[in-house]
Amino acid sequence: MLSKRLKTIAEMIDNNKVVFDVGSDHALLPCFLIQHGITQKAYAGEIAKGPLNNAKDNIERFRLKYKVIPVLSDGLMNAPDDVETVVISGMGYYTIEHILDNCDINKYDSFIVQSNTDVDKLRTYLSDHNLTIIDEQIVYDGFFYQVIKFNSDFHDPYSETEIEYGPVLLKRRDNIFLEYLNDLKDRYQKIYEKSHKESLYKKIVEIDKIMYNK
Ligand SMILES: C[S@@+](CC[C@H](N)C(=O)[O-])C[C@H]1O[C@@H](n2cnc3c(N)ncnc32)[C@H](O)[C@@H]1O
Fold first, then answer.
1. How confident is the model at residue 1 (pLDDT cuts 50, 70, 90)?
2. What CATH fold (topology level) applies to the domain 4-164?
């Protein structure tokens, strides 16, 4: 069974694209994509042999040999030429930055990226490289995870507010985004009550403005 987080990622992948899942320790996402007819071919990429063996075991267990192909690779360094969509999820920002720095982003149709840390730094990276954020989703799976889909079309740098909260999320303002903002505001408020830091007060006011469309 796929987690809510990985299901959200799967739903953001365009149909019939060859997918490369970077850091695919159990190959669960690529297997799900084939089983649900989202794609006909996917790669499970892993930097470490142990997790790659777990991926291979699952590929065999699901009888998906030749449809899900395991690849030993640091990021996209050994990715085959037919890859169209890249998924990078469940890692910290600096690992993601290393993977993006060491690939040719223009070669791929789209990236779906979920960082466990520093989502604002990830958006800053995309902004600094003039990349386009085409979709963003928030999923609550014991924690609020943000998933960002982007491509290499040129985009002017994003504003500070867009980098902090997400350009697509700010426009769509769906319920889960408002729940996320409420949770963030609560956390800032708790720290503010102890520290009385002016910068935190500003954040709380900023979140209120977004939540109540002021
Ligand atoms: C916590 S798991 C996340 C697995 C899965 N992607 C997910 O979202 O649940 C992170 C995996 O990424 C792998 N990894 C870390 N750095 C990597 C890199 N530079 N290239 C490929 N895999 C990497 C690790 O070996 C580990 O198996």
1. confident
2. Rossmann fold (3.40.50)
